[in-house]
Design brief:
By secondary structure, the protein is mostly helical. Helices cover 62% and strands 0% of the residues. It contains 5 helices and no strands. It has helices at 2-12, 15-25, 30-37, 41-55, 60-69. The radius of gyration is 13 Å and the shape is globular.
Length: 89
């Protein structure tokens, strides 16, 4: 049952939420993410809060650990096999 809930939560992440996770992984603040995506900081705050709820993360470090564990981001070549790769990679 726990695995089903985990998979459901992963499916519930929107494309925008995944994009925000990637920007958090780059070290951007919510204000910087807002500028990059040309949305308000409050919208980013809401997305980040929703991401924390969906992933169970309590902070940005926990979120990045979750994202690496679930193949949502890769860092310095680590865990990149879980991400979509070009056919000739």
């Amino acid at each position: 049952m726990g695995r089903e809930l985990q998979q459901s939560q992963e499916r519930d992440l929107s494309e925008r939420e995944l994009e925000i996770i990637a920007l958090v992984a780059e070290g951007l603040t919510n204000q910087e993410i807002a500028g990059t995506l040309t949305i308000s900081k409050r919208t980013v705050d809401n997305h980040v809060s929703n991401i924390f709820t969906k992933t169970g993360a309590k902070n940005r470090v926990a979120l990045l650990n979750w994202a690496m564990d679930h193949g949502k981001i890769c860092r310095d070549g680590f865990n990149c096999c879980a991400l979509d790769q070009p056919a000739d990679a």
